[in-house]
Amino acid sequence: MNGKIKELMDTVVKNDYCIGCGLCASLTDSPLTMMLNEDGKYQPYLSDNNHNKDLEISVLSICPFAKNNNKETEIGKKIFEEENNVEFDEYAGYYIKNYAGYVKEEEFRSKGSSGGMGNWIATQLLKNDLVDGIIHVKSSPDDNNLLFDFQISDTVDELLKGAKSKYYPVEMSKVLQFVKENEGRYALIGIPCYIKGVRLLAEQDKIINERIKFFIGLVCGHLKSDMFAKSMGWQLGIEPDKLNGIDFRKKLDDRAANNYGVEVKGEKDGKEVVLISPTKELYTTNWGQGMFKYNACEFCDDVLAETADVTVGDAWLPEYSKDSMGTNVIVVRNAIIQQIFEDNMGDAIHIEELSSEKVYQSQAGGFRHRRDGLSYRLYLKDQNKEWRPNKRVEPSNKHSSKRKRIYEKRTFLSQESFKAYKLAEKNRDFDEFINYMDPLIKNYNKMNAPSIARRVLRKVKRAAKKLIES
Ligand SMILES: Cc1cc2nc3c(=O)[nH]c(=O)nc-3n(C[C@H](O)[C@H](O)[C@H](O)COP(=O)(O)OP(=O)(O)OC[C@H]3O[C@@H](n4cnc5c(N)ncnc54)[C@H](O)[C@@H]3O)c2cc1C
């Protein structure tokens, strides 16, 4: 077998650091094919064991989680440093300006996950004839048990059909092969590690470099296996193989933006149904507990898609979260996109400039886990002499014992959730999942609860505030 492919399989894939992006399988003559594994996560499989030929590009040089591809800052520097008025922030990477905002025109905001900026920016690229097609994730048209996949939209109507976040496994091998075979100018929407991977590919592949003109990044907490979608449908009465569709970000009028719902479609008791529930009321949806999380996400330090021309996420700040329609946090790194914002502010869009500090705060939990927590996870890997990719974060053991236990337990909860789900599926009973996970979650919550001293202090503060106000 080709030595580089063998090394990829023996390190990244074997040790469960594969994020399933499909870059390795997209290369011409690659013997790899992307398929879902038993945990509902994409990974490459060898379709031809006797493949000895060297590929034109080494799989190790483009895989986002290969040993030495911790290059987010380096890539950002090469691409963005030349832009006018660019600044650097250790969390956002290079940036021109940051904003909070939403789209005022048409249906972008109501159809979007947050303020609708993701698809609005893509629309501007199409309307201004800067690209011919947008590579993004839409409902899968094929009868293949997959709910979503990467497709290319070349009209605004098509683009809007693919609005909203897909917390679901997707891979890019086929869509990148299409780009290579079909001339055109494209923009790619993706999570941070996917964008970094395609940037690495573009450094070596002339066609990809010429054709993918813009990268729109999504802020990322972590990616989910397909068990996340299936478990939500199941809790609402749709068995995993009867789930036909899911909206992970149903806006609920009477609730804050961060208290959104989920809408599932499928067959329940022999009838086609559409069911909605506030997401937080479902058992598997606490993002801090990280159920069905790809292990690779535990070893990622790029929350704000630092190699993208523009990044959009949720402005999880109290002043914006109260609006159920949703508000984006936006980091702009490309001068053309900055100009689009300036030309449209006030009319088509509402935007307010944000400091880097505020951008950080909007994702503070994510940064704690992916920088502070990552340093401890790296330390543990080194202690156990286990393979791991290099990261921009250094390994460290200098955390409070409580924080260390929280990070350890989160990893454990995530790993156990896969086992619990498989057990439930085997017995065709979701209660099996709850019975398995409940003691683990109780144990985690107990450790996470504020200490008695802190609870007493909070009570005293509340009483004092009441006294002052009366
Ligand atoms: C796995 C994942 C984790 C995320 N974690 C966070 C987080 O921790 N914090 C945070 O603030 N925001 C997070 N986001 C981003 C957030 O959910 C919204 O996608 C973002 O705010 C854009 O909303 P919008 O209304 O502007 O987008 P829209 O106008 O709805 O446009 C979204 C665009 O993104 C495309 N898209 C959706 N999912 C994917 C995908 N998986 N891969 C490629 N393209 C996709 C859609 O097809 C659409 O074109 C995450 C998104 C994903 C997919």
TrEMBL record:
Molecular function as annotated in GO: oxidoreductase activity, acting on CH or CH2 groups, with an iron-sulfur protein as acceptor
Domain Coenzyme F420 hydrogenase/dehydrogenase beta subunit N-terminal: 99-176
Domain of life: Bacteria
UniProt organism field: Virgibacillus halodenitrificans
Protein name in UniProt: Coenzyme F420 hydrogenase
Short name of any one Pfam family annotated for the protein: FrhB_FdhB_N
InterPro entries reported for this sequence: Co_F420_Hydgase/DH_bsu_N, FRHB/FDHB/HCAR-like, FrhB_FdhB_C
Domain Coenzyme F420 hydrogenase/dehydrogenase beta subunit C-terminal, residue spans: 185-353
Record-linked PANTHER family: 7-HYDROXYMETHYL CHLOROPHYLL A REDUCTASE, CHLOROPLASTIC
